[in-house]
Amino acid sequence: LIGDDGKATLYDGRTGQPYDNPIMVGIMYILKLSHLVDDKIHARSTGPYSMITQQPLGGKAQFGGQRFGEMEVWALEAYGAAYCLQELLTIKSDDVLGRVKVYEAIVKGENIPEPGIPESFKVLIKEMQALCLNVEVLSDDGQEIEMRELDEDVFRTAEELGIDLSRPERGSDEEDARRAAERASR
Questions:
Q1: Residues 91 and 104: beta-carbon distance below 8 Å
Q2: pLDDT tens, 133-145?
Q3: Calpha distance 88→101 (Å, rounded)
Q4: What is the pTM of this model?
Q5: Domains present along the chain, CATH in parentheses
């Protein structure tokens, strides 16, 4: 069936006629990569946030955001992009109050307000208070900065704009198992 040169006579499946030239058959040493752009591309405007840190979830499967890590922060620091860094590390990350206010400002066509205190900093302070350490945040002139929780005004504004602040974190065990089963069946 297969000659010494690794070639065999193959037949056209539609006509039943043999092809003009013998065709090499056997083990394929070069395979097509399955890394296609359609499977890789991912974009996010708004989406789910972690319940504790209020930071965007990571990864395409959880419809998460793109991580802006330490080295990227250092690169922007070296470039002198302070306002870009402030925006990336507060309102585009875990400043819940600022996120709602920015969305409201964009909808109303107003200037974007000053960012607030990131939720991860509030979590750090709560963890330190759990260790019985009294932490006070002071401004440049020595005045204490009040670490407010979300107030009713923010919830009202978020509700008017259609933002769900109480959305649970994606990726429960049952949900992950269901998604894995769906991927396996494809």
A1: no
A2: 988 888 889 888 7
A3: 15
A4: 0.54
A5: 1-29 (no CATH), 44-162 (3.90.1800)
